[in-house]
Recover the amino acids of this structure.
């Protein structure tokens, strides 16, 4: 005949068994790579950018975009024309180097360098049918095979572009750059901003 077991002991045993079963279930879930925690981790990694960029990603990478080059550094993605040529920066907008004079620059501002320089007159013609904004226009110059940035001597004869130019008319800007006398070739870049192409002039100016 079976002996009578107190109910209190039976409740304790049942509780212990339940605790053991829960512990085992938790251990299995943690070890199972298909468990909820691991699945959540995979979804975060999949949403992160790939370490290897696709061609489309490389094309939109700011570091590979010539238009996003650091100020003072020449761009590489623009085809150069001759120093006497006329170039188009946007539909209806043309530009040319109207004049290049050899001068002796006199520096008067911090960071400027005096000495042999080129005074470059840039002419922009507007045939767009509306007023053309020139407020963001920038001219940079480089010299030599390594495209050394030329120092601007703004205090010696520089006349920036006007804020705008009316349709059917032209505007000029005069820019002075310290460039050694025997430096060849010379590269002049014009960026009118507002999404216009950077115009590049390159050649050997006569001194």
């Amino acid at each position: 005949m079976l002996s009578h077991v107190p109910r209190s002991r039976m409740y304790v045993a049942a509780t212990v068994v339940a605790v053991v079963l829960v512990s085992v279930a938790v251990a299995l879930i943690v070890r199972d790579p298909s468990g909820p925690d691991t699945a959540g981790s995979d979804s975060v990694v999949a949403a992160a950018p790939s370490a290897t960029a696709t061609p489309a990603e490389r094309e939109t990478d700011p570091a590979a975009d010539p238009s996003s080059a650091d100020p003072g550094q020449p761009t590489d993605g623009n085809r150069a024309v001759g120093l006497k040529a006329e170039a188009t920066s946007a539909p209806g907008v043309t530009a040319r180097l109207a004049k290049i004079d050899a001068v002796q620059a006199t520096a008067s501002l911090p960071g400027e360098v005096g000495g042999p320089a080129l005074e470059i007159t840039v002419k922009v013609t507007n045939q767009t049918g509306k007023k053309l904004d020139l407020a963001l226009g920038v001219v940079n110059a480089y010299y030599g095979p390594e495209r050394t940035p030329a120092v601007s001597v703004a205090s010696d004869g520089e006349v920036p572009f006007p804020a705008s130019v009316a349709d059917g008319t032209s505007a000029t800007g005069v820019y002075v750059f310290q460039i050694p006398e025997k430096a060849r070739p010379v590269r002049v870049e014009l960026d009118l901003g507002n999404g216009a192409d950077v115009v590049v002039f390159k050649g050997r100016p006569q001194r």
The two ends are 125 Å apart (CA to CA). The helical segments are 7-31, 36-47, 55-59. The chain has two domains: 7-47, 78-203. The first helix runs from residue 7 to 31.
